[in-house]
Design brief:
By secondary structure, the chain is α+β, with helices and mostly antiparallel strands. Helices cover 30% and strands 17% of the residues.
């Protein structure tokens, strides 16, 4: 039987949060992400975090602002207009206006899409 963290091909879904040091939205993003994982029956997936220290590292990581949530190495919230990398804050657009992190519903959709695509 396949567990919630395994894809149909038997691979594990990876979730990583990229942050700048002292990110004001760190806890908001992590709390919403953990809640979304729980609500889609993927609470056994470990969330890793990585601090982006400078512009050079931001460029290498394809980092478009803090927090950036990667699911299997992909930013499901990437916007073509925000393709510039930056070691700065990031704004997410949700149904209630701008926020420092995706909503739980947006995260759940991204997780479901990743699981379905695998």
């Amino acid at each position: 039987m396949m567990s919630a963290l395994d894809s149909p091909r038997g691979e594990t879904i990876r979730v990583e949060v990229l942050l700048v040091a002292d990110c004001a939205n760190r806890q908001l993003a992590l709390d919403r992400l953990q809640r979304a994982l729980t609500e889609v029956d993927m609470s056994n997936i470990a969330i890793t975090t990585r601090i982006i220290a400078d512009e050079a590292e931001a460029e290498r990581a394809g980092f478009t602002g803090s927090p950036t949530i990667l699911i299997d190495g992909r930013d499901p919230f990437a916007e073509p207009s925000a393709a510039t990398t930056a070691a700065a804050c990031r704004i997410y657009h949700g149904p209630n206006g701008p926020s420092g992190a995706p909503t739980v519903e947006q995260l759940k959709q991204a997780l479901r899409s990743t699981r379905a695509a695998d």
